[in-house]
């Protein structure tokens, strides 16, 4: 059984003459531990696909199966409950709350959990230490570099123990070196913690860090290939990310 399965999924926006076909007949399986990039030109449907994979949006046609369970007909409230339990998001512009400290930002996914303050604190510091930002716990996002902010966003994604991390252009707002460090971090989280990671990117070099590359064009899957390149080789002779 696959972690996620999309069966013949299409997504339309608008009606009649203004109708846009954002995705058409997508057939796709995501397995536990996959590290996938979704690539394609602007407007090809990458964000729409990520939103559907992340249960932020529902298909117009077709079926979404999560661990074998069809989410057809599941209401908004339950969908958001499932999403909060299983899926975490990392965004290009970090999406941190700027009036909250680093600690409070990472705490957000735990607010509805029945955990003691001590248990929460342990969970939060475990992630902050793993990402090398524990000393920054009192700071606010505006006091941090882009790379540090993205690490906070990753700590927040990991603290909930969600199995799937979806990242939309996670290195888009970072300089090359910081972007590479972040991708190495995601690779190690994928390998060491068996988190399933799906990254949307328009950047070939970002995709080279992942182990499976799905290309979409005009809302259709144009290619779905295993990536056998070793990122270390890809980057040996280039500083371009
Ligand atoms: N809310 C919406 N209403 C109407 N059309 C939409 C909406 N969202 C996306 N679209 C259209 O659906 C198609 C796919 O858009 P999508 O944002 O998924 O592409 P993308 O590959 O993520 O693009 P980009 O790389 O520019 O972010 C585009 O033609 C877009 O104009």
TrEMBL record:
GO terms for molecular function: ATP binding. Keywords: ATP-binding, Nucleotide-binding, Transport. InterPro entries: AAA+_ATPase, ABC_transporter-like_ATP-bd, ABC_transporter-like_CS, MacB-like_ATP-bd, P-loop_NTPase. Residues 4-240 form the ABC transporter domain. PROSITE patterns: ABC_TRANSPORTER_1 (PS00211), ABC_TRANSPORTER_2 (PS50893). Pfam families: ABC_tran. Belongs to the ABC transporter superfamily. This is ABC transporter ATP-binding protein. It comes from Tumebacillus lipolyticus. The lineage of its organism: Bacteria, Bacillati, Bacillota, Bacilli, Bacillales.
């Amino acid at each position: 059984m696959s972690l996620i399965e999309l069966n013949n999924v299409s997504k339309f926006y608008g009606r009649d003459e203004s109708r846009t076909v954002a995705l058409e007949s997508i057939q796709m399986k995501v397995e536990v531990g996959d590290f996938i990039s979704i690539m394609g030109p602007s407007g090809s449907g990458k964000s729409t696909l990520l939103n559907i994979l992340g249960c932020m949006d529902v298909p117009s046609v077709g079926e979404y199966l999560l661990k074998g369970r069809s989410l057809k007909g599941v209401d908004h409230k339950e969908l958001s409950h499932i999403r909060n339990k299983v899926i975490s998001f990392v965004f290009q512009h970090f999406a941190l709350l700027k009036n909250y400290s680093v600690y409070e930002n990472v705490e957000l996914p735990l607010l509805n959990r029945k955990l003691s303050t001590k248990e929460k604190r342990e969970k939060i510091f475990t992630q902050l230490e793993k990402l090398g930002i524990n000393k920054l716990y009192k700071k606010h996002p505006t006091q941090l570099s882009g790379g540090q902010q993205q690490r906070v966003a990753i700590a927040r994604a990991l603290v909930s123990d969600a199995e799937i991390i979806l990242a939309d252009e996670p290195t888009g707002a970072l300089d090359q070196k910081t972007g590479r460090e972040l991708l190495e971090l995601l690779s190690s989280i994928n390998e060491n913690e068996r988190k399933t990671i799906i990254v949307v990117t328009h950047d070939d070099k970002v995709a080279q860090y992942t182990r499976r590359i799905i290309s979409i064009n005009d809302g259709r899957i144009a290619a779905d290939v295993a990536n056998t390149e070793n990122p270390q080789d890809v980057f040996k002779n280039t500083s371009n990310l």
